[in-house]
Amino acid sequence: MTIAEGHGRRPGGRSARVRAAVRAATLSELAEKGYTALTVEGVAARSGVHKTTVYRRWGGVEGLIADALEMASEEPWPIPDTGSVEDDLRALARLVVTGFTDPDEGPVSTAFIAAAMQNSAAAVALRRFFASRHDQAAPIVTRAVARGELPPGTDPVEVVRAAVAPIYYRLFVSREPVDAAVADRAAGAALAAARAGAL
Questions:
Q1: Mind telling me which Gene3D superfamilies this protein's record contains (predicted)?
Q2: CA 56 – CA 50 distance, rounded (Å)
Q3: Which end of the chain is flanked by fewer CB atoms within 10 Å, N or C?
């Protein structure tokens, strides 16, 4: 999950290599230590980039988190296209569950949420990340409307939100376990609401 190059930098070359190395180090540090133990010094040591460079370019831990989220928002998401909105929403919800239960991806995903709860810059970056994910997932709903599976005017982003929100509630509010059955129920509830015209 990460942030755009911008600031007039040319893509590619040493700047891109430095950014990629720092981003990889940030993700590794998050996976191993979590957000509260993330430091510029740790990222610099792991990436091989001098900490002065990291401070100058990213400013601190908040900038590292924001950049990692920005880069992730630019990456494609494997959106399902099964030919059925029911199966697509189920697969999407299961994809979210996997992102938090996978032993490699899960700690990083959880660390990003924790960072957003504690830091305003990370919160803004996380909102952008989710907006990108919602936009990428929107074709699930627009295809369903075109096939006549959902009513015209159904809001794609609201359907996607409804399909994944119960998963995040369990993960970060009630702290209950999540699995494929939870994903399927969340997707089913979102689909029922969409079919009823509530979304």
A1: Homeodomain-like, Tetracycline Repressor, domain 2
A2: 10
A3: C
Q: What is the DSSP string of 147-196?
A: HTSS-TT--HHHHHHHHHHHHHHHHHTS-----HHHHHHHHHHHHHHHHT
Instruction: Tell me the per-residue pLDDT of 42-61, one tens digit each, with 9 for 90 and over.
Output: 999 999 999 999 999 998 88
Secondary structure (H, E, C), 28-90: HHHHHHCHHHCCHHHHHHHHCCCHHHHHHHHCCHHHHHHHHHHHHHCCCCCCCCCCCHHHHHH
Q: What pLDDT was estimated at residue 4?
A: 29
Q: DSSP label at 2?
A: B
Closest CA to 96 of 163, 147, 5, 174: 163
Residue 12 has what pLDDT?
54
Determine the angle formed by the axes of helices 156-172 and 139-147, rounding to 10 degrees. Answer: 130
**The pTM is what?**
0.79
Read off the pLDDT of each residue in 157-186 and give the average, rounded to a whole number.
95
Spatial distance between the Cα atoms of 19 and 13, rounded to a whole number of angstroms? 10
The whole-number average pLDDT for the span 2-16 is 47
Tokens of 39: 């430091």
